[in-house]
Amino acid sequence: METESEPYIRLSTLRRLHQVVADLNTARSLADTLQAVADGVISGLGFELSAVNLVRPDGDLVVAAVGGSAGAEALMAGRVGSRCSWERRLSMGERWGDLRFIPYSEGWVLDDDDVPQWHTTGPAPRFPDEWHPMDRLFAPLHAAGASGGELIGVLSVDKPRNGRHPGAWGREALQMYAFHAAVAIGNARLRGNMQRALLRLEREQQALRASEESFRQAFEYAPSGMAIAEMGGDQHGRLLRTNDALCRLLGRPASAMRRFSFSDLVHPEDIGTLLRTSAEGGRAELRLARRDGSYVWVSLRNSVVADAADGPRFLLTHVEDIEERKRHELQLAHRASHDSLTGLPNSAELRARLAARLCATPPRPGGGYEGGGAPDGGVAGAGGVYVDAAGHLHGFDEFEFFGTPPPVETAPFDGHVHTVPPNEDSDVDDGHKGLAVLFCDLDGFKSINDRFGHHAGDAVLIEVARRLTNGVREGDTVARLGGDEFVVLADGLGRADAADLAVRLRNAIIPPIRVDGRAVRVGASFGIGWAGCGMSAEEVLHSADQRMYIEKRSRSKERRRAG
């Protein structure tokens, strides 16, 4: 099972990976892009050395960029390795998906070939996954990012900072980065060709026809979408010309595309992003409508093509399909915030959702705060609002201040509605509704693990998660805290409502669960806590946990066990 820290580590890795991939698309030239690829391995993937080996027109590979070590750069930059030596390396060792790993025990045969390298000898590894100085790890770079495409280079990495072989997560991150690096190198080459073609159009009037043909070839046969749009006049923004790649991406013929502008095709939520990009030039990520009504994520890069005499003439737009990257980002974010076994929100996500409902100021039911009046030196008003000392307007849940409301028309409302727990000191339910936190611990689960194995235990946890999810309302949260502990967040419940919900969920868990042809049963103990502003998420969970143990001890072992 995952440790509690792994979601944070994965989310941090995802953020760094997202940043370095974004940096690849900001480089202005092919050389800058190659150096950004090498530096991104160092800053985003946890290695201390990297090199980009680029395929030359004659087929051999030249070291085009080195990251992480000035000494390695001086030793290797500009040196060439033959194609046959590289093909030998990529056919050896272990296949980690698209990656190639050659352990030191096999790589000694490569010491004398002509491929530039910085490896040094060292002692044998002390444990199985320790990185050895002679270990080699390569990520092939293929045209358009596809593993079956033409080889355009090889990314070499060395010296992981943790001193270990990359795990499944690190390998997946390196493969994803190599995919985007190959696309970025291809796009840099394409942009270089386009810029040279446009420069020739301005400087070589006598070669205008040849330059226009070069531009047409680059435009029409670009692997990613390209468009030319009008600037200024009554037809501002109208698409004048689109290439086959863009037409295929949006499922529309070129004749139909000429009736639209990008503002007609963009998702309503992205129109502001499009207008800023169209006015200023630059790059944006947004969604465009396909012919079937669905939307596709694209990266738009606008270049304003100007005439020296008349000013801006038209927009040249490069449209790259990033749907797959966005899908991977969402998957990685989901895996970082959800339990891999049950699919429920994990401990980190639970605490984040709970913390979002809380603030540091504890309200007092019935009209005010401890010490009287409004919190933090603020001014109390009517209608469930107050103005704090900084002049911000707040709201209250289920109580209000009394008195003459001050003039608060100019105070900004920060959107936070205070969470107030019910009064548990009274035996009478006053009908107050709050945010209930139900802490659930399974009874008899350990014996199932011991008797039938962890496979049976996992099946029980998955089924319990399903039953809990089916037993709550839409909008409530069911999370797995870890082991056999679950937590339910249910807003808008009174004390009696929360008790009834705990009974219903316990009764939903008790029926037998079929695992590998046998019926097993577990029970459940519930503790009901209440979230309130002034408490931290840890305090709320600790309170519910303690009440669960009180409830568990109040019943005999025979009554707790359900099977």
Task: Explain this structure.
- With 563 residues, this protein is α+β, with helices and mostly antiparallel strands.
- Helix content is 38%, strand content 25%.
- The protein is built from 18 helices and 24 strands.
- The strands form 6 sheets. A 7-stranded antiparallel beta sheet has the order 3-2-1-7-6-5-4. The protein has a 5-stranded antiparallel beta sheet with strand order 9-8-12-11-10, sandwiched between helices. Strands 15-16-17-18 form a 4-stranded mixed beta sheet, with no helix packed on it.
- β13 and β14 form a beta hairpin.
- α1 runs antiparallel to α2, α1 runs antiparallel to α12 and α2 runs antiparallel to α6.
- It starts with 5 loop residues before the first helix and ends with a helix.
- Its EC number is 2.7.7.65.
- Pfam families: GAF, GGDEF, PAS_3.
- GO terms for molecular function: diguanylate cyclase activity.
- It is an enzyme of class 2 (transferase).
- InterPro entries: Biofilm_reg_signaling (IPR052155), GAF (IPR003018), GAF-like_dom_sf (IPR029016), GGDEF_dom (IPR000160), Nucleotide_cyclase (IPR029787), PAC (IPR001610), PAS (IPR000014), PAS-assoc_C (IPR000700).
